[in-house]
Description:
The protein is an all-alpha fold. It is built from 4 helices and no strands.
Amino acid sequence: MMTIVALLVFAGAFAAAVAVFSYTLLPAMPRIAAILSGREDPVLSATHRLVVRDRRFSTPRRAVVEPVALRAAA
């Protein structure tokens, strides 16, 4: 009896996982496959991007030494 209950619980959990997979990931599989294979994704290439600041090429910031009196006044 416990084996049957355990199999029913497993079957229900497996069905729920398959339902979530088919609802969320299945529609995105062509895009995921295109990105992983290195082909250009038409959805991403049609979208215009604006890079405000690229962190790889930012200038290093130097610490500015301020007198203690000015720091306390601020």
